[in-house]
Amino acid sequence: MSTYMPKKSSPKEAESSYVPEAEEEAAAANFLIPQNESGLVIVQPDIIPINMTYMKERYTQFSTWFQLDDNNHDTQQTHKKISNENNNNNKQQKYPSSDYEIARNKSVELKTNADKNGPIIDFIVAGNPKSGTTTLSNNLALIAPMPTGDMCLDPKALVTTSYLYWAQEDNNNNPNKNSESKQKEGHQQLYTGIKCPRYVSTPSILTKFSKYLPKTKIIIGIRHPILWFQSFWNMQATNHISFYQSITPYTLTKTCANAPICTNFCNKQLFCVHRSRFHIALAQMGKTPLSQDEYSLLAPNDFDGGPKIQNFHIRNPIFLYEQTQLTQEYFWDELSTFLDYPNATTISHDQIARARGKKENKNRTDINRLDVCQEENDSLRQLMMPYAYEISQWTCRYFIQSKDVYVANPTKFCEILKEFEKDPCGKFVRDEMNGEYVLPAAMRV
Known about the structure:
- The protein is of the alpha/beta class.
- It has a domain at 12-50 and 122-152 and 196-366 and 374-422: Rossmann fold (3-Layer(aba) Sandwich), CATH 3.40.50.
- Helix content is 29%, strand content 10%.
- It has helices at residues 52-57, 73-89, 99-104, 133-140, 155-166, 203-212, 225-239, 241-245, 278-283, 292-295, 329-338, 378-397, 410-418; strands at 12-16, 66-68, 108-110, 123-127, 183-184, 187-188, 193-195, 217-222, 318-322, 351-355, 405-407, 429-430, 437-438.
- It has a five-stranded parallel sheet.
- β12 (429-430) and β13 form a beta hairpin.
- It is globular.
């Protein structure tokens, strides 16, 4: 585990307006066996130092990361055209002549393991929404030319947009400009990254990062699922007042079972109770053996839980945090270590941003705001609390044991997650016999 020296900061609170979200094998030997008295052995994965010279010069390597995609129908026409030109001119095979032509050419794709010589996209803030991702991206934007709002792109689009547009917006569109000169508020922007809180629950995109950009580091945040649900509801209720006046939280308990379309574990909704099962999204990444013991902590009674969980074998390293850690110095020190921030310094973190909905609506009195502790929402909490318990237990007993998963201060992290096992409203307790959350015996009538 890395060491750190605490430093003082002066937070500047900046409330951000709502930014709409975009639409859409590891072997058992890689996992640690619990040994100490708390049942956990936590060893942080080794962080491979970044070659700073490579980072400053990698813009010049842009064209070497791509190849013609033989599986693309248009590629056949491209090959035919190239072949004719070669026959006529007796020249070697031609590829797109400029970086911008590569970006536009649908027949060109990233090479598998395109980042084998070094990272191309340094990080993605992959989720979860309403878990501090806006604050995180506002601070990371100081070291990477990236939008602070949600921007969900597949790997090719992300690489071309990062290198040809974001990083060059003040440089006359010169794709070979040395990134060392790119500055924001005095910070060198040597990194590349993006925030898309939907990535974590979209394995079809993460598998592409695993295939083409396995050195991209994935940053994921979680929080108590009940508080997450309340926060998400209140933001959306502020943005879409009429719709949220017409439904109740129980409308969002419907699952994707037998649904023709399922996005983010939800049936035709942006968020739902099932999206709060953060451990299911994490389990799909394949960082644990997915043993029988694990299945008992992975929503075993759900249609897509337990042994029915899909393993997508994501190769990228992961940094996992809990939202409340964002206010702690040790979090930023450890995140800086994970990203191999230069000169053993800490990423600046005085930006505090919150996405709470449209500013123009925040003072309206007709918003159907949710208070999860109201008696009418008792059944909702009883439904969600078993998931909260499972998140706490599975994450600390299995997920963070992986050599590919990094957390800031693992002991403190698991102390925070232990609080997930408690009803945030203090009303229900867990029945150890069946795992349900019920009224304490003294309160039963």
